[in-house]
UniProtKB/TrEMBL annotation, chains A, B:
Gene Ontology molecular function, alphabetical: (S)-3-amino-2-methylpropionate transaminase activity; 4-aminobutyrate:2-oxoglutarate transaminase activity; pyridoxal phosphate binding
Protein name: 4-aminobutyrate aminotransferase, mitochondrial
GO cellular component, one term: mitochondrion
Transferase keyword on record: yes
Organism: Pundamilia nyererei
Length: 500, 500
């Protein structure tokens, strides 16, 4: 099927992109394409501007049901393959955003289609269990061969959840329970605690806090949202908790050219973290946990050094706060390691690591002592979805079999080097290229320019995502090869050359 | 396949249950079984006590990974059919709890298996979209033929979410946004609002509240948990909001025998609701919304009259609060109507209706004016899961084709009448039988007795759930026929007769 699709659509191929490139084809290399051919197209193919007429029609239809303000276009997922997303107007785009970074190995990967056609798997899809009370026989094995096979250092326990927000919400709950149990020691909860908890009052519902960072993003449910500080529109009008917000380092890029300045900035932020912990303890709202992303994603792809994270982890330990690393967007291989925190080189990187997106369902790993002491304290009806774990097992097999983390490292280097070249070539438009693996970003001079460039790139067959105020973020699938990097750089170069 | 399974396991059949029944077979009627035969077994079949040895072995294995304190036993979902859940030790139980009320038409229903084997559906399972930005072509149609075809009165808009908690969290957000926009009128948010929102402070994050009811359950994430008041252990140690909690009527059953007393109790609660609304407004934490279940489920299956809900709805209207009906557990047909609030007979029952469980994914319907004014205010990566909507379409087809709501009404009457008889026969053990459709409950004399009865019933092949302090709740699938009611009543009668 994939082969016939490819031959049907061969007309618009790499050649078109070479033609599109204003400054010639210096990035194009066909050799690397070969391994992809089975389930990938060989280039974008555009027939309309985007959104095209069919997308606009559907937008009107959906507008009767939902707010469609965020919708880019409607998709033909059947025809999408590998790194290419096909829309309902027949446009085929190189997808470097991958459903907000949630498609691990491309569209319609044969290994995942096989999961669907295996009759042994039918029942897992059709009978969604209440995992917390009636798990299927293969649940311990499936979780061991999928999630636990990639568990962060020092962690042998994992709790699945349905999505990223629920993962962080429940991780925070586990932190609060752990913190209060530490304080309580061998004592059982008092009647006063039990009674006041029923009406949302202290001491049963204590005034504990989670320290988060300006620019951080951890989800949009009320608990998560109290630790999210990416954009005002996400938070406006929603009641919140008086929890401390520390500055996240604003580093200068490339990192290795500003070592001294960046170290000073990181020291400033760490000092503020300790001050806030002390201040909130004095306020009677002690910090039970610190939550942070290894790379702030929604907030604008902000990096910090391994040294910063090591020191922060030590501060957490010193003050008795749990250290929660949110890998919802960074986890799953995009940085060239399965977890971005592996770049820190620590044996004991965290107490809690949450995930979702590329892992296909949500959840969090945790240290033994972070497991709730009683049943039903961390609980809901579904507690995840075993059908998503079936897919994850296959994703992990493909990652291992095809050495995709090495591929990501290789493609990532090519991508970052290309971005360096482009910002050198267009210094009035682009700056601050940065990244780890293919988890890269570059800033435009302002938000209007950023948006215009992204729309132009889309009309030329490249789908990108924005983040922060004026950042373009790159979030390709793990099957994004050097060949695709070159395709992208050609098109992007062309967009920039035409940009007024 | 289903047929061969049935013949393989015919050995333990209805006859066994007749034998089990101490007081004879007065409830047994074979005729009603016929329509079920295609995908249902014809009786429980027990080979070990539950959990059996294989379950216990798996419990140890999973105990290395998670807290297993809530786990009943491990299941063989492949062999489970219709109303029967099969465990890993070969025990086959009549399931009257259905994964905490989340299995709408039984296990391995042929209509759902067909969804899986239709090649046109493959891509929907394999490519999970970010629905808020890149929906599939068929999304408006699928949502129209599934969720909107059963939309509550007066609602044409629905927002899907992944689970029940996320549904309520986002419904609350929609309520807060609506409430502040009403207050704001034609003005845009001030800079002070935008800036303070980023650090969780008023006026950007205003001190608004949601009024909920003692005994209510709306989920366990931090926002939901502030409106949940079922058990202290669910809330202990988790920071919360200072939101008002009203008393839910404690009615006497059967309802029609205590009309006057119950009306007084409901009036008392409604008065308290109005007092709380005034009090919280004076506190500077105005009530933006009222959230309530049509029947309090986790809190102990507490009912209130249509009159109570009508008056409450009017109070909400009078004070400018949104009226949010949480149908996560009651929705989907178990009460004999698709939504429990349909029993109130109102044209304008609610501003928001949330759902999950039997609807297979979460979400909420809402009035037009409750739609967020801007994109990304109600948003997350997945915003639901179209593969669950595929199943839901089929579930709705089966409900219509097989008149399952009528069946539920019929089975429900038989069930409730049976419970009345049993509480008359065993007044020292059972009381307060109540229900709507098959959404029934009965109280034991104390929690230890309740738990012991449930375990004994399980060992005899009937799986039940508890709620509240000492309540047994009945949550069968919609394919639970009078035949199954009689099977259950026989076994339950036997348990009670043997109970010391």
């Amino acid at each position: 099927m994939a082969t016939s699709l490819i031959s049907r659509q061969l007309a618009f191929s790499l050649q078109k992109n070479v033609w599109l490139s204003a400054s010639g084809c210096r990035y194009v290399s066909k050799a690397a394409a070969k391994t992809q051919v089975e389930f990938d197209y060989d280039g974008p193919s555009m027939t309309t501007t985007v959104p095209g007429p069919r997308s606009q029609e559907l937008m009107k239809q959906l507008g009767q049901i939902q707010n469609t303000g965020a919708i880019n276009f409607f998709c033909n997922y059947e025809e999408s393959k590998g790194n290419y997303l096909v829309d309902v107007d027949g446009n085929r785009m190189l997808d470097i955003y991958t459903q907000i970074s949630s498609i691990p190995i491309g569209y319609n990967h044969p290994a995942l289609l096989k999961v669907m056609t295996n009759p042994n798997n039918l029942s897992t899809f059709v009978n969604r269990p209440a995992l917390g009370i009636l798990p299927p026989e293969n649940f311990p094995d499936k979780i061991t061969e999928s999630l636990l096979s990639v568990a962060p250092s020092g962690m042998t326990r994992v709790q699945t959840m349905s999505c990223g927000a629920c993962s962080n919400e429940n991780a925070y709950k586990a932190i609060f329970i752990w913190y209060r149990n530490k304080e309580r020691g061998p004592n059982t909860p008092t009647n006063e605690e039990l009674n006041t908890s029923m009406i949302n009052q202290a001491p049963g519902c204590p005034e504990l806090s989670i320290l988060s960072f300006m620019g951080g993003f951890h989800g949009r449910t009320l608990g998560c949202l109290a630790t999210t500080h990416s954009k005002a529109i996400h938070k406006l009008d929603i009641p919140s908790f008086d929890w401390p917000v520390a500055p996240f380092p604003r580093l200068q890029y490339p990192l290795d050219e500003f070592t001294r300045e960046n170290a000073e900035e990181e020291a400033r932020c760490l000092e503020e973290v300790e001050d806030l912990i002390v201040k909130w303890r004095q306020k009677g709202k002690p910090v039970a946990g610190i939550v942070i992303e290894p790379i702030q994603a929604e907030g604008g792809d902000n990096h910090a050094s391994p040294d910063f994270f090591q020191r922060l982890r030590n501060i957490a330990r010193k003050h008795g706060c749990a250290f929660h690393v949110d890998e919802v967007q960074t986890g799953g291989g995009g940085t060239g390691k399965f977890w971005a925190h592996e770049h820190w080189g620590m044996d004991d990187p965290a107490d809690v690591v949450s995930f979702s997106k590329k892992l296909l369902s949500g959840g969090y790993y945790h240290k033994d002592e972070l497991q709730a002491d009683k049943p039903y304290r961390i609980f809901n009806t579904w507690m995840g979805d075993p059908s998503k774990n079936l897919f994850l097992s296959e994703v992990l097999n493909v990652i291992r079999r095809e050495n995709l983390l090495e591929e990501v490292t290789r493609s990532g280097k090519a991508l970052l080097n290309g971005l360096y070249e482009l910002q050198a070539q267009y210094p009035s438009i682009l700056s601050r290229a940065r990244g780890q693996g293919t988890f890269c970003a570059i800033d435009a001079c302002d938000d209007a320019t950023r948006d215009r460039i992204m729309l132009k790139a889309r009309d030329k067959g490249v789908l990108l995502g924005g983040c922060g105020d004026r950042t373009i973020r790159f979030r390709p699938a793990l099957v994004f090869k050097e060949y695709h990097v070159n395709l992208f750089l050609n098109i992007f170069n062309d967009v920039l050359a035409q940009h007024k």
